[in-house]
Amino acid sequence: MALTIAVHSYKGGSGKTSFAINLASAYASVGKSVCLLDVDLKAPSSFNYLLPEAKHWVNDIFEGRYGVMDVIKDVSKEMGTKGAFYVGYSNPDILAVREVSSKDRKWQSKALKLLMTAKRDLSDAGIDVVILDTGAGVDFTSVNAIAVADYVISVGRPGASRQRSMEQVIGGVYMPLDKDCYIIENMCHNDNPTDLSGKKFDLPVLASIPCMCDVAVRCDNEVLVLTEPDHSFSKKIYDVMESLDKITS
């Protein structure tokens, strides 16, 4: 079965998507077969980073119109990765975003089953790692992705208010779903771990990534682990990948 990792955050602006893209790229760069699915249907953004041409969308999977193998696109040649690198985009059109916002719980229940089927199909196709770039917060679609995942990586920025928000998500979502959870402290003021792990839950911090002005700008235009593998940000991503390999082996 493919290793499935949900990359989540309790609120927007944490750097979740750039982290998810770089982590997926890191796996593909070392020869793993990887699929990155943008399941943030209400604020999709992966199309800004990775070759936006798409015939079908992740939305089509949840509507039952297409299977995941019809939706994903192999970008390994364009990205220059050793392993196969598949991407599935959510529809960024404002009408599609509005449509998702109107869905009820019955639709979400069906979408959960379809996402589980997509995970199985990707595994059957030989995918080694599935990265789910979730929406921020506790929207049903995000909770579905967390429920399907084997592991959850919560990306957060330091600060007392953010810590309280993270603790609410950990206690209200991750723990009830009995998920193995890990924290990425992003955009820290220095290279030392901050307080996001919290004394209440004591979750492992896989990396503390300092705030780097160039990363915020350049990750909008390039995948640093591929263009600059020796960059300090890239090294942090590879460290996370190696830590996950030890955890999951």
UniProtKB/TrEMBL annotation:
Entry-linked Pfam families: AAA_31
The organism's place on the tree of life at top rank: Archaea
Residues in AAA domain copies: 4-154
SUPFAM superfamilies listed in its UniProt record: P-loop containing nucleoside triphosphate hydrolases (SSF52540)
Protein name in the entry: ParA family protein
Native organism: Methanococcoides seepicolus
